[in-house]
Amino acid sequence: QVQLVESGGGLVQAGGSLRLSCVASGSIFSIGAMGWYRQAPGKQRELVATITAGGNTNYADSVKDRFAISRDNAKKALYLQMSSLKPEDTAVYYCNAWIDSNRKIQLYWGQGTQVAVSS
Description:
Strand content: over 45%
Largest sheet: 7 strands, mixed
């Protein structure tokens, strides 16, 4: 059973910083691309940032130059360093990952972690 567990969310003032973590566990042969998505109340889930197994990154325009995605393959972990946070960054943040488990590659999602930014 593969699981992704996020942590690090919370309440922060505008201009502040948070670091989200996502750790994969279970029967994992390999992990491919990973990403962070977010969903604000009443809105659709949207891409925040992605990172390939080789470390190539991609960001939504709204977070470019403020957020940094990284991964530690040895720890099976994904991170999102968020700086200069704005009230519009308030959302539930989800990580996902393409994982080869028992020779079957699937996209897995975490349960989400709440980020709230006050003005």
